[in-house]
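Hi, here's the filled form for the chain we discussed.

Project: internal
Contact: R.S.
Residues: 371
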Amino acid sequence: MLLGVLPLAAVSPVIAQGFDVPSDGSDGVFAPTTNTVIDLGLAGTGAWNTPGDGNGIYDSEQWLIVFKYASVHVPAGVTVTFKNHPKNPPVVWLVDGAVEILGNVRLDCPNGAFAAGPGAFRGGNSVLPTSGFGPGAGNRQNLATFDYGNATCFPLVGGSGGGGVHEFGPILAFGGGGAMLIASNTRVQLAGELTSNSPTSFLGFSGTGGMIRVVAPLVDGGGILQARGLGNGALGKIRVEANTVDLAPSTPGYSYVPLGKSFVFLRESVTPSVRVLSVAGVSAPTDPSAGFQQPADLVVGTPNVEVLVECRNVPTNATVKIHFRSAQGDAMSTVTATLQSGDATLSTWIASGSLGTSQGFSTVQAEVTIP
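And the returned structure, exactly as it came back:
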């Protein structure tokens, strides 16, 4: 018998000099053997690099829940989903070793009133009915759009919610798909499904797809990478940063850049930011909640309010918008704020608008567009 001997070549992608995923592995090895719901509400609170105990750390300054895994292995036939944290931040997996997704990891919006994926915005209430929530939210009879964020998927932010009424009557409105970053020092293999979708139903308005960012020297696999509004909502955003990529087409198509010399995922002192300082003269919390339940973040006694907004590292020719959304059935509105004082380093802006005519919960959200 003649044996043929073939030379074997190991493929090892070159890691960009200085690239390092800062994972101490303190959340251990994540290797579920059955369908698993990760309860984000169990995360500890502190700086993101505080050692974890398997439940991650919620960093309110960064508005992220960060898991620092040694490695990740989701086997075929296993589905991983998430239960939101009360502050509803996006999810970050920092992984020292390899990430293997042979099963499913889903950041999809669940069914239910005012639901959303992690880091995303809620759909409207179909009973009252109400508009959706978020910068691209659907009005009571409109679809949601993902017309914010950027191709870098930094900072992370999920999809917006659909509106809660149709020409044929109230409907089930869905929130947006969630937001997630997966970063590995070696490899992300996607042979299963990684999705951040907003569902659909008969006559239902879906929200938009969410945001997914994947970073590793090697990103490969023939699985499904998806961020869609499955019914009538808009597509989300997907970003891949790697030296070597071998992926099936994603929906939407991912933006791609080679692995950078450094790995940036945290907001820094020079990162543009915006936050609501006060509504009707009442100071807003620095870390507002994401639920419509008592205690409210703040209480005002009038529907017509003045909103004061703070911007950092934002040029004075930027456009600052304030989105007013009511949970009680009033139509949504968006108002452009005017510069009150300051410069590109630190400035304050002001706008007037209505929280709606009905008593109850409303949201005020600020959005900045930099030219």
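Let me know if anything looks off before we file it.
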